[in-house]
Amino acid sequence: MKITFYGGAGEVGRTCMLLENNGRNVMLDCGIKLGEKTEYPAVDDVKKVQAVTISHAHLDHSGFLPHIYAAGARPKIFATKPTRDLMGILLSDYYRIGVLRGEQKFSSKNVDQVLKDCKILEYDQEAVNGFRIRFYPAGHIMGSAITAVNNIVFSGDICMRKTRVLDPCRRNLEAETLIVESTYGGKNDILPGYRESFGKMVEIINETLDKGGHVIIPSFAVGRAQEVLLALDDYMRSGALRPTKIFMEGMIGKSMKIYRHNAIYANDDIKRRILMSEDDPFKSANFHRSRSKTKEDVLKEPSIIVTTSGMLSGGPVMFYLEKLGSDPKNTLIFVGYQAEGTLGKKVIDGQKKIRIGDREIELKLRIESIRISGHADFNELLQFIRSFKGLKKIFLMHGEKTDLAEYLEEYQVIIPKNLESYDI
Prior knowledge:
The chain folds into 2 domains: 2-187 and 374-423, Ribonuclease Z/Hydroxyacylglutathione hydrolase-like (Metallo-beta-lactamase, Chain A); 194-369, Rossmann fold. It contains 12 helices and 22 strands. 28% of the residues lie in helices and 21% in strands. It has a 7-stranded mixed β-sheet with strand order 6-5-4-3-2-1-22. Strands 7-8-9-10-11-20-21 form a 7-stranded mixed β-sheet, with no helix packed on it. A 6-stranded parallel β-sheet has the order 14-13-15-12-16-19, sandwiched between helices. Helix 3 (81-101) runs antiparallel to helix 7. It starts with a strand and ends with a strand. The longest helix is centred in the first third of the chain and has 21 residues, at 81-101. Strand 9 and strand 10 (152-154) form a beta hairpin. The protein is of the alpha/beta class and 424 residues long. The chain is globular.
C-alpha cells in the first residue's frame, strides 16, 4: 500500500492524503488552507479519487470536496452524521464568501452534490469499499472521528480531555501505522486545564464589563464556539460571571442547532440535561441574536459577542473590530489556534493597525489570548500514541513544528513533506 501527502504535511491546514492499493484508492480528508490566500491540496488529478473519508467538518479537513465535484469527480464520501450536517453550513458559507470575493471555483450545486452523496458511517461500524473503513470518536468537535483504514489509523484532530460537550477521544486502538496530528507537537506546547483557562476568561470579561466595555470573542463557528458559549452560560448561572447578554454572530447560531439535533453524540452530562430536565444548554436564555442590521441592540450596552471568524479572516468579527476596536474600554479575547499568515496571528504578535475594507483601524482595545483548545497538547499526544497496540510506524503531520519524534525512539517516525509518497 502507498500513501501520498497532498496537504497538511509540515503545516496546519489543507489536510489531504491518498491511500492506494491494488488499483483502489481512498483519500483521507480533503481540506483547504485559509489565510491571506486560500491554498488547496496539491492533487494532480482529482478525477482518480474513488472514495474520501472526512474526519470532521472544519474546512481545513473538508473544504476541497466541492472542488473535486466541480472537476467532474463523484467519489464515495464517508462521514458521521454530525460531520455531514455541519459540512452543510460550512461549505455553504465557504461558497458564499467566494462569490462575494469574486473568486468562487465551484457552484452551489457542487455543495449539494457533496451532501447528497455523503454516506453516513457511525462510530464502530465498518464500511467496505476496497478498504475496511471504521470511525472512532475523536473528541475534537461533534462528529469528529479517528479513521481506521485496514491496519492504518489516521487520528484526524483529537482531544484527550472531557469537555462541556464531548467525551475524550478513543484510545488503546490497534494499528501498525499511525498518521497523527501534531498541532501542539512542540515540547513546550502544554495547554492549561479548562478550569484555569475559563477562570481567566471570566476575570477578564468581568473587568471589561465593569468599565462599561464590550468583549469580542472570535471563534470557529463549529466546536470552539459551543464550548465557549456553554462555559459562559454556566459561569453566569453560578454568579461568577456578571449578568449580561451573550450575542452569537455568524454561523454560530446554526451550528448550535445542529449540535442540539445531534445531542446523542454529546457526553452523558449534556444528554442528561436535555432528557432528564428542561435545562437545554443549547437554548439558554442568556444567548441572543441581534435583531438589527446595524447591530444597535448589540452595541448600545456592554455585552459579550461570540463571533466568527476565529482567525479574523472575515465575517462579523470585522464589523465589531471596526466599531469597537479603537476604544480601550473594550476587549478582544482570542480562544483558538492562529495559523501563520492570518490576521489573528499578526494581531496577537503585536500588529495594531489593520485594514477593514478601505479603512485603516488602529486597535486600542485590550487584546488577550486564552488557550482553550480542542486539540491534544504535547504530553497528551505522547499518551495517545503510546496507547496503541502493535504500532510500528508513525507519520507526524498537521503541525508547523514538532518535537515528538525525539520522544518516540521505539517507533519508526517519519515527518513527511507534501507530495512525498511512502510504502506502508
